[in-house]
Sequence to fold (269 residues):
Amino acid sequence: MLPIISEKCPKEFKGQSQNFVDLFSKQGYRTLIVAMRIFSEEEYKFVAEQLTEVRLSAAPNKAELLTIIEKQIEKDVFCLGATIVEDKLQDNVPETIRDLRLAGIKVWMLTGDKIDTAENIGKSCNLISQELQIFKITNQRGFFFADFVNKFDEYLLKHGFSYEEYEEAVRSNNDRKLPEYCVMIDLKETTKDFAKVEWQREFVRISKYAKSVICSRCSPNEKSKVVKMIKESNSKLVTLSIGDGGNDVPMITEAHIGNYFYDITIQNN
Fold:
């Protein structure tokens, strides 16, 4: 949201909202920038016709075309402020994830949250523990894809492994203590790099042996692409996607097994 805020919006107000979001996302809260834009009736009708035409078409690149149209209207918005909300975990989530991992099931978290929020949630639900080495991939200096690959290889060498030796050790389940790690990626900031096949291969190569993987700032389409990428990396893998919202439907339908979780609360008057 921040990159599409209009230059006419007071910089002090925009900066205050950004600081607010950065502060509370690091504390594990879900944050949201609220903004608005006023359309003329002519502009609305034009965009509405374009969206309807693409949605009803059978174009193979429908998702890309919709994104192009959406970007035409999602610009020059006026920042109204920022909000936070505490998203508490349900009962027994950490214990459930622990048991899944003990059963040899790899757990990946695909979320639209900022990477700081995702990291704190990962820690609270047992996806990230203190002994894990965390590798982050963002567009910040020192955290590009190439940096990620180099740092990972250096990490293994520090513990006396080449990648091939580490892979063999994991597969053979020997008694040697293996270095454990977690991979985190901000898909919003790394979209261009992540679209390259060579970096996808590197990401899968490293992530498949991670104790946990967290993909943050994922759009519904990106969630689906991550699941598809893992499916195609190894025909022997079985993927399961679990979601609780409409934005999770693409990844649920892409997985071998999909589950939509919903909670119905009945209140007696």
About this structure: The beta strands are 30-36, 78-85, 107-110, 133-137, 181-186, 212-216, 240-243, 257-260. The radius of gyration is 21 Å.
